[in-house]
Amino acid sequence: MIPGKYRSVSGRAANNVNCGLHLVIQTSSLPEKSKVEFKLNKETPSFSGRLLQHDLERNYSSRQGDHIHLASSSMPSFPILQRSSEEKILYSDRLTLERQKLTVCPIIDGEEHLRLLNFQHNFITRIQNISNLQRLIFLDLYDNQIEEISGLSTLRSLRVLLLGKNRIKRISNLENLKSLDVLDLHGNQITKIENVSHLCDLRVLNLARNLLSHVDNLSGLDSLTELNLRHNQITFVRDVDNLPCLQRLFLSFNNISTFESVCCLADSSSLSDITFDGNPIAQESWYKHTILQNMMQLRQLDMKRVTEEERRIASVVAKKEEEKKRESHKQSLLKEKKRLTINNVARKWDLQQNRIPNIAPNQDRKVSDSPQDPSQLHGSTVSAFPEETGSLDSGLNNTLQGLSVTDTHLVEVDGDTLSLYGSGALESLDRNWSVQTAGMVTTVSFTFIEFDEIVQVLPKLKIKFPNSLHLKFKETNLVMLQQFNALAQLRRVDQLTIDPQGNPVVNFTLWKYYVLFRLSHFSMQKINGTEVTQNDMIMAERLFGILAHVASSELPQYRLISILGDVRKKQFRYLLETKGKKPGLVNEENSDSKRLVGENTNRATLNYTTRDFYNERLEEIKEKKKFCKMYMEDLVKEATEINMKNEALQKLWPQMFIELVRDAVIEIRNKNSYMKLCLQQITDQK
Amino acid sequence: EAGVLELGSYPGPRMLSPERLALPDYEYLAQRHVLTYMEDAVCQLLENKEDISQYGVARFFTEYFNSVCQGTHILFREFSFIQATPHNRASFLRAFWKCFRTVGKNGDLLTMREYHCLLQLLCPDFPLELTQKAARIVLMDDAMDCLMSFSDFLFAFQIQFYYSEFLESVAAIYQDLLAGKNPNTVIVPTSSSGQHRQRPPLGEASLLEGVEASLFSQCLENLCDRHKYSCPPPALVKEVLSNVQRLTFYGFLVALSKHHGINQALGALPDKGDLMHDPAMDEELERLL
């Protein structure tokens, strides 16, 4: 019976040498007990290797009292180790040479049955002279100075190889160790996992405290149950899903910061225990639930049991994140599309304005490549944008919503702002907007649309978006003050923003005052972001008040009525178009017209007709003008004829008068004959 | 002021005066632009049949001709009408002055484009060309984006607008004089000639700027005699040209625009000194404020 204190020499491994090794890898050293004593044979001068005998004698006792004879060997630098036969019998399968200050592996003679060899805590630089120990199962070289794995090629039975705390730079020369069960390489200088794919029986692999920067090349380790990678510089992990038995994975104190870098873990169904503490990822707010959500099979995280509650929370949070990510992805797609469309609209606008196109070729190509069908944009990841507002309203929320995006225009409702880009966008006002959506809109922004076109849809705007109080215009070709007259027909405008870009009218000194004057009935609060002061209003009136006076009191009544009539007619054109002619319409018109003229009448005659309409009107009048001309000519002809006749009469009259008188006098010269003549005339008459 | 032909009235002694009878009917009517107004009145009537029929045709004609007399008939009318008669032009000038005098009074200096904007408030299709020409007079054909004062612009605009055709012919004559052509040849100005021509490059003949004033004056006298359309009183033109030895085209125009006599003869605008005064309108304004 081996005395208790010696039983533990080779660690727990000794007890388990017969059955499959269940090892708990400890990095602590084995209890220092040695049963072996070295003695150097000083009579052999050819030894170059020296052993410090005095140390040995001080530290260790030798119960057996045997001497080991170190005889000369054919290899001059190596000591030869020999044990006494009693020891050989007692501990036939194990040999401990711990803390023997060995700098080389001694030649071990006559110990071919050895199964366990312990070289812990020495100064060995190379693994040598153990090739003959072909029964070796357990080899412990912990805490030495080995720089390279070598000399193991004959140890085909080796099951446990402990090479921790050495100076090994590469994993190599393990080809024949196919039975390897435990491989401990912690505390070395290994930078790469390699040459382990043949170790199909390996169950434990310890690579802690090395210089690994990433993990891959793990194929072939079909039995690996535990993988220790603590204290490295790992930034990403791959191939773990190729380890069918991996249960425990220790990644503490590395450099992992995202889940993506270890995403293969999610695919490993065997993993139940994992640690990430000491990594940047563990500091993240989303750390725990992301790990739990992606690794449902996990039982322990960072050495703590995973509770059901935690799992539940993790899944809820993860779902929310997924939703958010999807949403933001959709948003960014929408944004991109919007940006492209706006670019396209801008380009068309520039061409329209005959500005020099200033597009770089690749940008041009990008825009022209955008296909007609919006759903094809950005590949198949974009779903078709819904055109019906019904489905949109159901998902209505305060985030950005692109409603209708094509290549030529863009309509967008963002909470309280309706943005229209490109003249095609104006058609969207015809749509059936839900009362809720339309009611929320307080700002309407027009870009890249001719103001003259906007004017025509203002009645629609008034009706469909009754709460729109702030109008913004950019690149709308506002060139004259008169155009502002068109805004008077709206119900109310609180704020007006005219962007200088594309609106030359802003360069005029008086434009703001004119706006305040013409739209005084709105009591505007702000123009281009600046508050409107009382002084501004007074100045506006002072500058243009007389114009208003002239435009109302000095106009002849019929002009007043005709101009206002035109205004009324134009504003009701829209209503007429939509409602059609109904008998009750006339009354409606009259009552509404009274309301319309309710604005400051003295400037109501100042209105704006777009150039096209104006010219159209003038064309229409041409016919009438022609007729009038002809009519007048006829009248003049008649008048001059009459005049001529008059004049002619004037000339002839004196002569005629004289002749008349003369004829009369001659007639009554002879009284009697005249009387007879008269009587005759009277009787003739009867 | 335009003479109004009263149709159907008793032919009083004035109608039978020798000068009157000496003119054939059409010429008389044309001289007084009677037909223009009659045609326009009837046209307006047709345009607004429904509205006018509400209160009677007779009242309409009364109002119409009253407004012609008062000079308010040109408000918000198309350019072709405003330009049609000298009286219309004068009325328009006066209306512009009346409405925007306050801008001038405020001291704001505006660009040509802004003045054009103001013009368009009263006449939507007023051509930019005319405003540009007026601005050239003020700015002496230099730096067209410069700011101009209200009075400078208004007087220059008056000359340009009221005497546009006259100025076209003058420009043609000037170009010919510069080029050294015979001043007595008849020049028929086309619509695009005259002021659109570039100044000829400086050559031997034009070492001195402009043309000789006396020669120029002679040509203009002939011009005034020859043509029907309104021109400034020849005596005053002569006066302008007698003060200098040589002058340029724009120098001439500037002199015209600044001449009090011509302004008074035109009768549309008050004197420069009184330009900012309009007590009646100021009163109205105070009432509004």
Q: What is the chains' assembly state?
A: heterodimer
Mean pLDDT of chain B: 80
Give the N-terminus to C-terminus distance of chain A in angstroms: 189 Å
Query: Beta-strand percentage of chain A?
Result: 5-15%
| DSSP strand count of chain A | 23
Q: Gap between N and C termini of chain B, in Å?
A: 34 Å
Low-confidence stretches of chain A: 1-73, 359-402, 580-598
Please describe the biggest sheet of chain A, giving its number of strands, its sense, and whether it closes into a barrel: 11 strands, mixed
Number of domains of chain B: 2
Please count the helical segments of chain B: 16
The level of helicity of chain B is 55-70%
Q: Radius of gyration of chain B over alpha carbons?
A: 21 Å
Main sheet strand line-up of chain B = 1-2
Q: So what's the overall shape of chain B? A: globular
Helical content of chain A (DSSP H or I, runs of 4+) = 25-40%
Structural class of chain A: alpha/beta
Task: Based on the model shown, name its key terms.
heterodimer, A: 686 residues, alpha/beta, 8-stranded mixed β-sheet, B: 289 residues, mainly alpha, two-stranded antiparallel ribbon, 16 helices, 59% helix, globular, disordered N terminus, Leucine-rich repeat-containing protein 49 (chain A), cytoplasm (chain A), Cilia_flagella_integrity (chain A)
How would you portray this structure in words?
Chain B: This is Centriolar satellite-associated tubulin polyglutamylase complex regulator 1. Chain B: One of its GO terms (cellular component) is centriolar satellite. Chain B: It is found in: Cytoplasm, Cytoskeleton, Microtubule organizing center, Centrosome, Centriolar satellite. Chain B: It comes from Mustela putorius furo. Chain B: Keywords: Cytoplasm, Cytoskeleton, Microtubule, Phosphoprotein. The complex is a heterodimer of chains A (686) and B (289). The termini of chain A are far apart. Chain A is an alpha/beta fold and 686 residues long. In chain A, helix 4 packs across helix 5 and helix 10 crosses helix 11. Helices cover 35% and strands 10% of the residues of chain A. Chain A contains 15 helices and 23 strands. In chain A, the strands form four sheets. Chain A has an eleven-stranded mixed sheet with strand order 2-4-5-6-7-8-10-12-13-14-15, with no helix packed on it. Chain B folds into two domains: 53 residues; 181 residues, no CATH class. Chain B contains 16 helices and two strands. In chain B, helix 8 packs across helix 9 and helix 11 crosses helix 12. Chain B is globular, with a radius of gyration of 21 Å. Chain B has a two-stranded antiparallel sheet with strand order 1-2. Chain B is mainly α. At the A-B interface, helix 11, helix 12 and helix 14 of A face helix 2, helix 3, helix 5, helix 7 and helix 8 of B.
